[in-house]
């Protein structure tokens, strides 16, 4: 894992990190070098003990390929990656039928399409979706697909010989952000996603904070505005009623008297439409308060914002800062805020990272 994340590394540095003697390290890395997974690269500092340059070890990213697929309520979005989660190709297919067997067939078709862009066999397939996943295989509940107790991993075995792992989409995105993305190098960071739902991920001491309840979307009902709309559970001004793309679209559409898309809402706000500006700024203010809550409770090195609704951050930037500063101590420093790409490719890449962790590292 050390070489995968931070390579190339000298043998001395690798020995220090993993706590192995040089002899033990040689025994472990020798078969990896012989198989082509690891290589010696030039450019290391001179080793004073032998008077010649050392040869750091690095992985060969193309030695393994993975497919990651994110399932939404409408489509399957997939990417093909290397061992370091570098995206080689992307593709998507619609999900007109939410039946588990039909979805499994669509995933298999998308996997085949993506696999055509690489040489050799696939090392793993990761599938992520919004919902509760148990045993890295069974979907206990998936609200966007209306699934309950669906053995997705087992269903996939009828369509492919590639090893399959299933994960909650937010967990997968958090891991990808931690290992290969905007959270890399941060001992502590928070991830907040806004889109069809509201998600929260947390990494502390370099490890994701996980729980069986992580996939329940608990942050979606965190109260933000005392005079906000009421959600279906009776909560007033919770994150779901203010920050989801559906909430913004519904409120702007009702004010204008006709249907609008999410991007149209934001574009109207930029142009100064009063109704759109009010809704969008209120959402930005609420997001600022949510960021402040995360920062106050977890003291993160940075806050990462993502999801298909993340464009809100730019359009309602001033309102976001107002909400953030309202709930922060005047002497506190704003946490660095980093934005992820709004596309679902980021989520699909997260699914690929779960496959890398599972089938290469055994985690």
From TrEMBL:
SUPFAM superfamilies documented for this protein: Actin-like ATPase domain (SSF53067), Winged helix' DNA-binding domain (SSF46785)
GO molecular function terms attached to this record: kinase activity
Pfam families: HTH_24, ROK
Keywords: Kinase, Transferase
Keyword Kinase among UniProt keywords: yes
Origin: domain of life: Bacteria
InterPro entries (UniProt xref): ATPase_NBD (IPR043129), ROK (IPR000600), WH-like_DNA-bd_sf (IPR036388), WH_DNA-bd_sf (IPR036390)
Family per record: Belongs to the ROK (NagC/XylR) family.
Protein name: Putative NBD/HSP70 family sugar kinase
Organism of origin: Kribbella italica
Biological classification of the source: Bacteria, Bacillati, Actinomycetota, Actinomycetes, Propionibacteriales
